[in-house]
Amino acid sequence: GLLGVSFADAQSNPFQPNLFYRGFEASPLAGDAQGIAVYANGVRLNQPFGDTMNWDLVPDIAIDRLTLEGSNPVFGLNALGGSVAILLKNGFTYRGAEGEGMAGSFGRWQGAFQYGAGNANRSLYVAGNVLTESGWRDHSPSRLQQGFADFGWRADGADIHLELMGAKNDLTGNGTAPVELLAVDRSAVFTFPDRTRNSYGLANLRGTIQANDALSFQGNLYVSRLQQRTRNGDASEAE
């Protein structure tokens, strides 16, 4: 592991982690000590309100490389603790097809796929991931749907990519329960539901011009939309 880096599941859901680095974090929970800027192929993923980071929006099967940088003002607002640069796959860097499936206890099943193809000038890459589970605790289901596509073109010294990313997730992460309740039933929850529903869409047009071996120019033009609805525990299992 990396020195000074740790993860926590404060929201009690594995798809809503908190990334800690040098006292700052990238978390989906508003009000935390946010201080890590997160980018995917040049697009900032931190939300404008509270700089929160919803990790569930990015399909991990499509990640080619993830780089963690120290604090640097070049990475924009609220990068006091550092920055994370996510590089996603495309048809030039990944070629072939792959699929996987998984099933387990508590109604869990998952399927993921990726496909990449390209020639000297054009490329295509698509990937998707779906997951559903009822959760090992009472009243704790989650559903995950993620997709990513990249259409690429390149010529001598230049390349252009049109990228589309989408997610529609319904995540439940019920909080802590008193030890007296857990002594009766380990799967019990104290209040429910602690639920987050994210609907996300992103279209990103990015290009690179290689001026020489030491100098290149890069640019992004993108639009994105996140619709988030949350519901915090307002019911008790004792009821």
What does this structure look like?
This protein has one helix spanning 179-184, and strands at residues 5-8, 18-21, 24-26, 36-40, 43-44, 63-69, 82-88, 96-104, 108-118, 122-133, 142-155, 158-172, 191-192, 195-212, 215-231, 235-236. The protein is mainly beta. The strands form four sheets. A seven-stranded antiparallel beta sheet has the order 8-9-10-11-12-14-15, with no helix packed on it. The chain has a four-stranded mixed beta sheet with strand order 5-4-7-6, with no helix packed on it. A three-stranded antiparallel beta sheet has the order 1-2-3, with no helix packed on it. The longest helix has 6 residues, at 179-184. The termini are far apart.
Number of strands: 16
Largest sheet, strands/sense/barrel: 7 strands, antiparallel
**End-to-end C-alpha gap:** 44 Å
Strand content bin: over 45%
Neighbour order of strands in the largest sheet: 8-9-10-11-12-14-15
Quick summary:
The chain is mostly beta strands. It has one helix spanning 179-184, and strands at 5-8, 18-21, 24-26, 36-40, 43-44, 63-69, 82-88, 96-104, 108-118, 122-133, 142-155, 158-172, 191-192, 195-212, 215-231, 235-236.
Topology:
Blueprint: E1 5-8, E2 18-21, E3 24-26, E4 36-40, E5 43-44, E6 63-69, E7 82-88, E8 96-104, E9 108-118, E10 122-133, E11 142-155, E12 158-172, H1 179-184, E13 191-192, E14 195-212, E15 215-231, E16 235-236
Parallel strand pairs: 4-7
Antiparallel strand pairs: 1-2, 2-3, 4-5, 6-7, 8-9, 9-10, 10-11, 11-12, 12-14, 13-16, 14-15
Question: What attributes does this structure have?
Answer:
239 residues; mainly beta; 7-stranded antiparallel β-sheet
